[in-house]
Amino acid sequence: MNKEQQQPCDASWPSPIVEPMDSVGPVELGSGAGALGCSPEVLSHPSDSSKLVQECLQQFMVTEAQLQQIRASLLSSMEQGLMGQNPASAVRMLPTYVGSTPHGTEQGDFVVLELGATGASMRVLWVTLTGIEGCRVDPRSREFVIPPEVMLGPGQQLFDFAARCLAEFLEAFPVKNRCLPLGFNFSFPCHQTGLDRSTLISWTKGFRCSGVEGRDVVQLLREAIERQGASSLAVVAVVNDTVGTMMDCDPGLGPCEVGLVVDTGTNACYMEEARHVASLDEDRGRVCVSVEWGSFSDDKALGPVLTPFDKALDQGSLNPGAQRFEKMIGGLYLGELVRLVLAHLARRGLLFGGCTSPALLNQGSVGLEHVAEMEDPSSGEARVLAVLQNLGLSPGASDVKLVQLVCEAVSTRAARLCAAALAAVLGRLQHSREQHALQIAVATGGQVFKRHPRFHSLLQKTVILLAPGCDISFIPSVDGGGRGVAVVTAVAARLADHRRLLEETLAPFRLDREQLAAVQVQMREAMAKGLQGEASSLRMLPTYVRATPDGSERGDFLALDLGGTNFRVLLVRVTTGGVQITSQVYAIPERVTQGSGQQLFDHIVDCIVDFQQRQGLGGQSLPLGFTFSFPCRQLGLDQGILLNWTKGFNASDCEGQDVVALLREAIGRRQAVELNVVAIVNDTVGTMMSCGYEDHHCEVGLIVGTGTNACYMEELQNVAAVAGDSGHMCINMEWGAFGDDGTLSVPSTCFDASVDRASINPGKQRFEKLISGMYLGEIVRYILLHLNSLGVLFRGQQTQCLQTRDIFKTKFLSEIESDSLALRQVRAILEDLGLPLTSDDALIVREVCQAVSRRAAQLCGAGVAAVVEKIRENRGLEELMVTVGVDGTLYKLHPHFSSLVAATVKDLAPRCTVTFLQSEDGSGKGAALVTAVACRLAQTTRV
Ligand code: G6P
Ligand code: BGC
Ligand code: BGC
Question: What is the top-level taxon of the source organism (predicted)?
């Protein structure tokens, strides 16, 4: 495959003839019959023709006012594009997911595939980045000419061609068993949704392959590479050539924050403030935006400068009506414009003695290289003559100058229009950075810059004119952006690596249906054993609550609610009109929860006395219900032996004691206080009773707060520990301890192990430590520390604050996962913790929170599914309708927890219709109701 074959007829020019008018007569486009040979009207005196030629070229003159108009109109169309308003004239302003200019730290070998920048050729590069210390290694590259039928054929053919070129190129490199990151330099307008996800909007320049527009070009390339069997390549980034050019800028000289390409096509990118890009949910930092100014087509601005030659060129192009601005600047079109003008002037007898040639009438026969050569002051007349003779023309002496004038007119206009567009970008930068005096480095790339002798200087001069407040340094890209693409690929490879490490870290948290169903079965087995009094991690404690409220309860009751986030004392008034509650929250300082039992219960009595005084209940001995949310073996309604503390409580001399007795002793120690402790209930029971008062189907109580647990109404005959085989008994499952005997098959991650090791009850409450609020924040903290140590988070910088236990509150999960919270608010929460984070970090932290809370909710759902299925089977029902009364901060505040629990129950217990009823007044009311039922039963037995 060699470059030369392509020259004579260029595939980018499909159709033959169109007739635009101008002061010097019709413009004829393509090859075909008729116009060949010489036109009769040859002007007698050369000066006339030069005047007429000047007149014709006058059309290419763009005044400063017109340039300012174009600059202003392009600027407003850029702002419309940024705000996501896409009227036809707006330029697309496509975010590229490149968030920072190169740090220079990037290292490694990268393969770069360039497609689309330089017309009918594809380039493959091997780029070695050596980081800050290493010395620069020049990329090695090879160019492959793309056959016209491939540029216009089926997309698969193009991508297979690319894959073959890659394979051929890599034969010369040591790639055996290496996975090489590949950066895809794809120079066409694309909607990017990630560094490696990019959908082609429309082909431009000489390309029009079928079956690609609207498709993810990375996917298409990956599929082609797979078909080619080049498994050593991993496509990790797709980059627009302007971005590659900008990123290629040597940080020492730049960093460049604008990338400008004028090659076959033209375009620019620049670093915009992320908060100005409506399509991005981002308010901090910058993002590189590809302007795609080639499609700028505001008639008011461009109309006056469009010539009949432009219209003729457009109509003869592959994409008529599109890329109007590009067709006045891009290298693919400059030659064609010159050809059209030359052909036109020749026909008018103003050039070449009125003679044309097949080549002159053949579209695409005059290329950028011809224009550049003919304009090159160093190449002199001889070269111009040679070029024209090559086109089959026999130019006269005066023709050379006139032809050069035509070239100059076309390329000067191109440079000035390009300058107006660049000035618009600089204006946007001045605006978005609120800097009038802008110092900026612009990276330039592309054949027009490389080959055209005057384009760069013309552009520079004009920009300075149009953007006076800007101090611009132009930095030509060394190797056409290949290195820049490798830098982006290095960043993408790092991010892809981070993604892989994140997936590996979070994979054990992603439980599938099979695992959850296994938990349900294991819980059922443990429930059955616990009920039979056999060894089981589920103690299945009888609560001596035999019935849920029936609404006939009446009276005033005191209630205590200990074991959740807050300790509360409540006065509960149960009347025909319903239940009125007055309550007071009291703090239980850590020195008390970790102190002696006597201290704890004295503190409780102090609070009761304080409450009685506040409520004017002095001297009244109201029946009291005690919600004590810890595992107790109850011997009766008012006798509960504390089995072990949980949730951070560790008061001494309590475990193994009857806590009702401990309370009564404390009351006894306090003079002049009389209290009648009637019942001790677990918070799950209190919650069930409290909700049961509203909904009589409520037969399950669920707590997901600081701790977690569930209770339900079991058939008495199934409760080995309690005599009787009719009726029901509420069973406190104490499911927090589920799996403490190793029967829980859910994988325990190293993070769970760290949380357990650091807890005051290692090896205990396994299920609780996977689910409840006291632990989720800590699990997340350990994961963040791990990801930080892998360099995935916070750029691997040590984060002291994350070393602090409990610094990552579980409530942060609820906040960070809330859909209404934009990323910036997530970042604010984390920055308040003193974490130095980027937006990518905030996204990763959110994903970690989601994985941890999702696992917790699903496990909780598997537990509830086991309970409701047990009740259904107990009653031999096909279908069961049951309500679960729920309380607990995590369940109530987390944005997705409750729906995930419900979804898991629905999936694992399809024959149960389960309603989750959130308890409004907490379990204190439930404790009062249990007390009321006990008092009512006591009364009926007394009479
Ligand atoms: C409510 C109930 C308490 C229960 C608590 C659990 O407040 O009234 O009895 O212990 O919820 O949730 P928490 O998030 O406070 O631990
Ligand atoms: C494409 C741009 C590209 C430019 C320069 C245009 O036709 O739409 O994406 O950057 O050419 O290659
Ligand atoms: C306790 C249970 C309680 C649950 C919810 C667990 O730690 O062992 O008794 O129901 O927390 O508060």
Answer: Eukaryota
Give me the pLDDT at residue 900, please.
97
pLDDT score, position 14: 46
pTM: 0.78
- The pLDDT, as a whole number, for residue 675 is 82
Catalytic residue chosen out of the listed positions 483, 568, 846, 855: 568
Report the pLDDT value the prediction gives residue 481, as an integer from 0 to 100: 82
Q: Does 629 qualify as catalytic in the annotation?
A: yes
Atom of ligand 2 nearest to the CA of 205: 7
Residues of the chain predicted below pLDDT 50: 1-12, 14-25, 29-35
Q: What element of type H or E holds 917?
A: strand 912-918
Give the number of other Cβ atoms within 10 Å of residue 15's Cβ: 13
Q: What is the DSSP secondary structure assignment for residue 294, as one 8-state letter?
A: G
How confident is the model at residue 103, as a pLDDT?
64
Q: Determine the distance separating the centroid of ligand 2 and the alpha carbon of 213, expressed in angstroms.
A: 15
Half-sphere exposure of 600 (CA within 13 A, CB side): 24
The CA–CA distances, whole Å, from 545 to 548, 553, 874 equal 8, 14, 18
| Residue 471 among the catalytic residues | no
- The CB of 889 under 6 Å from ligand 1? The reply is yes
| Per-residue pLDDT at 827 | 82
Q: Report the nearest-CA residue for atom 1 of ligand 3.
A: 630
Q: Residue with the nearest Cα to atom 8 of ligand 2?
A: 188
Angle between helix 397-432 and helix 455-466 axes, rounded to 10 deg:
40
550 assigned to active site:
no
- Which H, E and C letters describe 269-292, residue by residue? EEEEEHHHCCCCCCCCCEEEEECC
